[in-house]
Each structure stands twice: as structure tokens, then as C-alpha cells.
Design a protein that fits this description.
Blueprint lengths: L33 E9 L5 E9 L13 E13 L6 E12 L20 E6 L8 E3 L14 E9 L2 E8 L5 E7 L8 E9 L14 E10 L6 E2 L5 E7 L4 E3 L6 E6 L8 E6 L3
């Protein structure tokens, strides 16, 4: 889940548009060899210590039937902060997971609850700052439950003291919750980004084109020593077809995955759309 690019491997809620419950049911490739990522990032400083991203929740679906004792997921990642030198990263967003027995969910389960492979959307976060992005379930924090399709949420990560703090807030209802973990000895990153990520070519990367677009808004960052929040503007779209065997990104890219950036003139920050056409 670390962005592989030139970085290095390693407001009030707007009313949602019409939302359909479209979902793919395509089987996974065997073996699964590629991880597809669409994202935008800022990497101008080495002192990022907080990031905020907003996202509408839309239907996303990974491919079905991964190999025995394996799992696959598709995730929406509105707030990410990473140190490209070490590969350490903290992330928060929402995800859908499928798994094949005897595997019981997505994530290692070493540091927190796995994401259930139940076909439902779940909040998730990086529950160990030295795990390189291991997934853990983040449902039912505070007054939150699970992601509601059509709602807009704010995802936030702050470094405070010797900890990373994750906060998720429903911008419509005000429901909110947070979790704090040890920082593992690192407190600053050299990149902040948002995006979507899905394993296998048969996964929905963002919503299907018959749904409303998946909108992400208001990517903001804070630098060490400053209390000011800065809008990550302008932003540019990037993408990666990550070959999981070697960790290299190729030039190949499925034509049915799409992303676009449009300007909100700082009212809501620059914004980004993701969607997948039928394939």
C-alpha cells in the first residue's frame, strides 16, 4: 500500500449524487500478479506530520475467489502519510475484502482485527506504524459504525507526542471516532497522498461507471513546527500497475480504470474522481 512512483516504492458535506449498488462479481486471476493504484500526491517537503482527506463513500468491490488461504481487497485511501526512505506509512480509509478459507480476512491480524471478508464496506487504518501499511479494522470507533454509501467522511492523521492519531468523521451526521498508536520512532514524512487501490485486474477500482463518481476532496497537510493547514494544490494524477513479484511498476494500464482531477478553486480544495467501466 505504499505509493510506487517518483516518490519511491516502498466545510460542510455536499449532497451526494445518485448512488447505485452496482458491483462486479468477476473471479480473480490465478495467481494475482498486479496491484493497481490511482493517486495524487505532494512530495515537496520532508516535514509532513499531518494529513486530511475527504471522500464520498461509493461501492467498491475486489475480484472474487482468490486462491486458497489468500485474501484480496479494494480500498479507498483519502489520507496517507509516508516516509519514502524507510517505507513506513500511516493510512486511513475504507475497504472491501474477500478471502478464501482457511484465510479469515484481510490484513495480518498481528496488530489488530482483520477486515472481515463479508462483502461489506469497512473502515480501516494502519494499526502499527512499522508494519508498512498492514490493514486493521477501524469500525465502531466512538459514535461511528461502518461506512454508509453516499455519505461524505473526513479522514485525518496527526502526529502528536510520540503517537500517530487517526480520526474519522461523518460530515453529514457528525459521528466521529479516533484511535492512537505508537509512532514506532518516526514522526515525519516526505509525501502525502490520496487515491484508490485494488489487487487484480478484475477488481473495481473506485465505483462502476453506472454509479456516481467516487469524489475525493480537500487534501490538506500540515508541516512540523506549523499549526497552519495547507491545501495540496495543484495536484496531478498518477497511477501504477505494480508487479507484486518484483515491486516494479510497468507502463501497462487497463483502459477501463479512470481518474480525473478538477479544480474547486480552494472552496473545497482540488478534487479527484475515480471510476471503472465494465470489463
Amino acid at each position: 500500500m505504499v505509493v510506487a512512483s517518483s516518490l519511491m516504492l516502498g466545510m460542510l458535506a455536499s449532497a451526494p449524487g445518485p448512488v447505485l449498488a452496482a458491483a462486479y462479481t468477476y473471479p480473480c486471476s490465478s495467481p494475482i500478479l498486479y496491484d493497481y493504484q490511482h493517486y495524487t500526491y505532494r512530495a515537496d517537503y520532508t516535514t509532513y506530520h499531518a494529513v486530511i482527506g475527504d471522500s464520498d463513500v461509493r461501492t467498491v468491490t475486489p475480484c472474487t475467489g482468490p486462491a486458497s488461504n489468500d485474501y484480496v481487497w479494494t480500498g479507498v485511501l483519502p489520507a496517507n502519510l509516508q516516509d519514502s526512505t524507510t517505507g513506513y506509512i500511516v493510512q486511513v480509509g475504507y475497504v472491501k475484502c474477500f478471502a478464501t478459507a482457511p484465510e479469515t480476512g484481510c490484513g495480518s491480524g498481528l496488530y489488530g482485527a482483520k477486515i472481515p471478508p463479508d462483502g461489506n464496506l469497512h473502515f480501516w487504518y494502519t494499526c502499527n506504524a512499522l508494519s508498512y501499511g498492514d490493514l486493521c479494522r477501524a469500525d465502531n470507533w466512538g459514535t461511528l459504525t461502518t461506512p454508509t454509501v453516499g455519505h461524505r467522511y473526513r479522514f485525518r492523521i496527526d502526529h502528536t507526542g510520540s503517537s500517530w492519531k487517526f480520526t474519522i468523521t461523518d460530515k453529514g451526521t457528525g459521528a466521529t471516532g479516533s484511535k492512537t498508536i505508537s509512532d514506532g520512532g518516526w514522526s515525519l514524512g516526505d509525501a502525502v497522498w490520496w487515491g484508490v487501490e485494488g489487487y487484480d485486474i478484475h477488481s473495481m477500482l473506485g465505483p462502476k461507471d453506472t454509479d456516481s463518481d467516487l469524489h475525493m476532496y480537500w487534501l490538506q497537510y500540515q508541516r512540523n513546527g506549523s499549526t497552519a493547514w495547507w491545501v495540496a494544490h495543484p495536484i496531478a494524477l498518477s497511477r501504477c500497475e505494480l508487479y507484486v513479484v518484483t515491486g516494479n511498476c510497468s507502463g501497462g494500464w487497463p483502459s477501463f480504470y479512470h481518474g480525473s482531477v478538477y479544480n474547486q478553486n480552494y472552496t473545497d480544495g482540488d478534487a479527484m474522481n475515480y471510476w471503472t467501466t465494465s470489463h
